[in-house]
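Q&A FORM
Asked by: J.P.
Topic: structure of YlaH-like family protein

PROVIDED:
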Amino acid sequence: MDITERLTFFAALFKVNENPKLGMWLLYITIILLCVVVYKLGFARKLPMLKNVVIYAFLALGCTILTFFAVFLPIAEGLVVAALILIIYKIRLHQEKKQQSQGNEV
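REPLIED BY: S.T.
REPLY: Here is the structure written out as tokens.
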């Protein structure tokens, strides 16, 4: 069995098997960005600056572990799906609030 058959989409996209150093860094950055988007859309609250720094530092630390899993498991792909679901939820929530505010004005 060839290892390239077992790579996930993002690992194959970044060619982790051909250039592991650059590929893993790109995968790590992708996972961090996707985690930040999912966190901001689903879980973020207004916090003081220092607490935000601590949260994002631990988020980056956790993404280090996720990056190693993401070579053969669909971690980044799952984060993309989670981000899309949360984006759809936020759009629908915004539309519903807009309709309610228009209904109250009439």
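FOLLOW-UP: The radius of gyration is 18 Å.
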